[in-house]
Amino acid sequence: MIRTxxxxxxxxxxxxxxxxxxxxxxxxxxxxxxxxxxxxxVGGITYNLRIGDPACGLFADHVEPGVSLSNFTQYQGxxxxxxxxxxxxxxxxxxxxxxxEAKGKTGxxxxxxxxxxxxxLDFPPEVLEELVIGDKIQIKAYGCGxxxxxxxxxxxxxxxxxxxxVMGLKSxxxxxxxxxxxxxxxxxxxxxxxxAPQSNSGDYDIQLFDAPTVRxxxxxxxxxxxxxxxxxxxxxxxxxxxxxxxxxxxxxHSNCVLAGHGPGAMVVMSSxxxxxxxxIDPAANLAAYFSQISSK
Length: 296
What we know:
By secondary structure, this protein is mainly beta. It has two domains: 8-141, Thrombin, subunit H, CATH 2.40.10.170; 155-294, 3-layer Sandwich (tm1086 (SG structure) fold), CATH 2.102.30.10. The protein is built from five helices and 18 strands. It has helices spanning 80-88, 125-130, 161-164, 211-217, 286-294, and strands at 12-18, 29-30, 36-37, 45-46, 66-70, 94-97, 106-113, 118-122, 136-141, 155-156, 170-171, 177-181, 183-186, 204-205, 227-234, 240-253, 264-271, 276-280. Strand 15 and strand 16 form a beta hairpin. It is globular. The protein starts with 11 loop residues before the first strand and ends with a helix. The mean pLDDT is 96.
C-alpha cells in the first residue's frame, strides 16, 4: 500500500444543481478548417455518454458525460460557492441527490471542467432518467490536501483517497512511483487551459488536430475516464511545459472542434522531478476503478 496523510483530511459538504445546456447568440462553431456547424456542448444530463465511453468520434464539442453541476449562489456578489464546489470536490467523492424524483440516490464525481466551471458526476442509467435540470446534489468533498509522505516530490490533486487506493500505484526500488495509464501524451499538443495558475479545479485540453501525432501516440481511442500521462509537463501549481516533468491527467470531457481544444485532462498528479513513471494499461479507466471502490 502507498502511504497517505488521509487521517489529516477534512470531509465537508458542497452542493450544486444540475445545469442546463447553453446556446450562444451565434450558434455556430468553426473548426480549424473553416467548417461551421451546430454541436451539442456543455451542461445538462447526457444520457448516452458516460465514463468508459469514447471521447472521440462524436458529433459534439466539449460534451460532459453524465451530469453537469454548478452552484449559482452569489456571496457578496461573487461566485464563491461555485468556486468551493469546484476546488474541494474530488474524483470518487460520493454525490447524493437531495431534491426531486431521484432524491436519496447516489453517484460519484468524475471530474471538473474549467472555463464553464462544472463538476461532473456519474449515476446509473435508471437514476439519470429520474433526474431533472435544477435538481440539487450534495457532495461529500474529501481529498483536498491529499499527500504521499514517501513521495514528497509528487503532487496529488483532485482525488478521493478511496480512488487512489485502487489505482494500482507501485513504489519502485529507485524511489519513483509507477502509475498505470492508457496513453502517453506529448506536452506539445496541450492546449486550452495551459498557463492556469492552479490545478485544483478545471482541466486542460489535448489537441487532436495533428494526424501524425494522433497516430504516433494512439490517441484516436481515448476514452472518458482514461488516466493519461502528459510527458514533459508540470502542473503542481500552474500548468506549464517542463522537460522531464510528468503530469497524470484524467479525461473528463469529449473531443472538440474549436482550435486549441480537445478532450479535457484534469490534473490528478504531477512531478517536475521525473518521479512519476507511466505504465501502459488499457484498463486504467475510472469506470473500472469505480467498480473496485463499490465492491469494498
